[in-house]
Amino acid sequence: MREVYVIGVGMTPFGKFPDRPYYDLGKEAVVKAVKDANVDKREIQAGYVGNVKAGMAPGQKVFKTLGMTGMQIVNVENACSSGQTALNLAYTAIASGQYDMVMAVGCENLTGGRTSGEALAPDQDDIEGILGNVMPAIYGMRAKKYMEVYGATPEDLALVAVKNHKHSSLNPYAQFRNLVTVEEVLASRMVAEPFTLLQCCPIADGAAAAVVCSKEKMQQLGAKGVKINASILVSGLFKNQSSDLTVPEITQRASRLAYEMSGIGPEDINMVECHDAFTIAEFLYYETLGFCRKGEAASFIRSGAAELGGKHVFSVRGGLLCMGHPLGATGVAQTVEAVWQLRGQAGDRQIQGAKTAMIHITGGGVAGMDNAACGVHIFTV
Amino acid sequence: MSGQPISEENEPVFFHPDLFVVPTDGKAPYLLGYKCEDCGKVWFPKLDICPECWTNVKQINLSRTGKLCSYSIIHVGQRGIKSPYAVGYVDFPENVRIYAQLAIPHEKIKLGMDVEVIEGVVRLDKSGNPAMKSYMFKAVE
């Protein structure tokens, strides 16, 4: 398999844009990424487009008025992991030698035509969905178990939101850039216990794109790319038996594969974007991704290690909690952040000396599974 | 059949006949599991074959009580369910974990408590009348 590099990235700000269709957002991201790569758009040989809600052929609508159709386009839906799935397909196309230069795109519009105030629920023919389950409660149950077993407090969990807001205040692409205190986080409206509103990732619209190519192509172009050292995608295991709610098995498997594939371990990683859909999620991922021991997430965040200036900065772009989560776009937006950080282009939120980045995404409420899918990528310069 | 909001007589629909039995003689209701004839794993909800072995499963009556693994109180929930409402995962002795609403005063819910399956209203119609009945759990007294 050949070595694969990211040579161009771009994204829209994330926010609420009900009047901008997903393909319009996608187009903006594609143009930015191609210009950032400084390549001729006609040399792009395929596009992998992550989108969850739009239905038929969303990728074609992104690329057609950019004069980029004709090439292979694959429309990618894998719940919250759609964006990293698109990146995984792009990676595989290059690594296998099928193509020399392709794009991974993620775009989503959730606010146009949506009734607000309703939590996202599992599918309506999902037995748990019929009986009233919603995503915040699924994570809420994990949180309550974690808090009971390890003694973490609501204040501990709130620190994740406080930290991610600190980071997003430095990110012009973030939806929410206000600073918040622990008190404000805990006083916000209760959604599903123990999560108050500021502990749940908001709905958002947005898009991101990346130009991915082989080492040979990069050298031929004279470009300086960011290397993709691991590209992993797995699905959740289906089981009805009891299991430990504090161990996200899908993340455990995916991250182990990523560490094996790259030969890189958590100790080397300067920056992590994970699936912080709810505050407890970031706690569980500190532990499951191997950045601290089981039960020690509260100590880890209180030590400052996960914050800008610390050894392993989590959610430096503000994470899902402050960016929001346009489903198809997030995985590619995490990629864009990783590339900016490793290039030294992250402005006020730059992690000094960042050399190795990891992105992780998971999600998709399906009864009987930890999550539907999980993507993990590791990048280096 | 199951899952449709209201029938002609305005009777709430009963969900789910191949998972939950409410005896007509007044005896206590119980859940049905589906046990693999090869590996012995129990599945819920109903499956026709075991996901691991692809062999047949046979229907078994589950124990009436289990332990509450964890719960959450949903404040911003689904339309048709009066908020706030409690939901949880219950672990049964047959090694199967089942999600359901909890008919337990919220301040009394504790992880690990013993709960018992009952029939209850799980969804309301637009006027606030019962639209769907199914299994849920109450505290074992």
Comma- or semicolon-separated keywords:
heterodimer; A: 381 residues; alpha/beta; globular; B: mainly beta; six-stranded mixed β-sheet; four-stranded antiparallel β-sheet
In short:
The complex is a heterodimer of chains A (381) and B (141). By secondary structure, chain A is α/β, with parallel strands linked by helices. Helix content of chain A is 35%, strand content 19%.
Commentary on this structure:
The complex is a heterodimer of chains A (381) and B (141). Chain A is of the alpha/beta class and 381 residues long. Chain A contains 13 helices and twelve strands. Chain A has helices at 22-37, 58-63, 82-95, 127-130, 135-150, 154-168, 182-187, 215-221, 249-262, 279-288, 297-302, 319-323, 330-343, and strands at residues 4-11, 46-50, 72-76, 101-108, 190-192, 195-196, 206-214, 226-235, 271-273, 313-314, 356-363, 373-380. In chain A, the strands form two sheets. In chain A, strands 3-2-4-7-1-8-12-11-9-10 form a ten-stranded mixed sheet. Chain A has a two-stranded antiparallel sheet with strand order 5-6. In chain A, helix 6 (154-168) packs across helix 10. The model of chain A has no long low-confidence stretch (mean pLDDT 95). The mean pLDDT of chain B is 92. By secondary structure, chain B is mostly beta strands. In chain B, strand 3 (30-36) and strand 4 form a beta hairpin. Chain B is 0% helix and 45% strand. The radius of gyration of chain B is 16 Å and the shape is globular. Chain B starts with 12 loop residues before the first strand and ends with a strand. The relative contact order of chain B is 0.21. Chain B has strands spanning 13-14, 20-21, 30-36, 42-43, 57-61, 65-74, 85-92, 96-102, 114-124, 130-139. Chain A binds chain B through residues 117-119, 121, 125, 127-134, 136-137, 140-145, 148, 189-194, 238, 240-243, 245, 367, and chain B through 3, 15-16, 41-45, 51, 69-79, 81, 84-85, 87-89, 91, 95-97, 99-101, 111, 122-123, 132, 134.
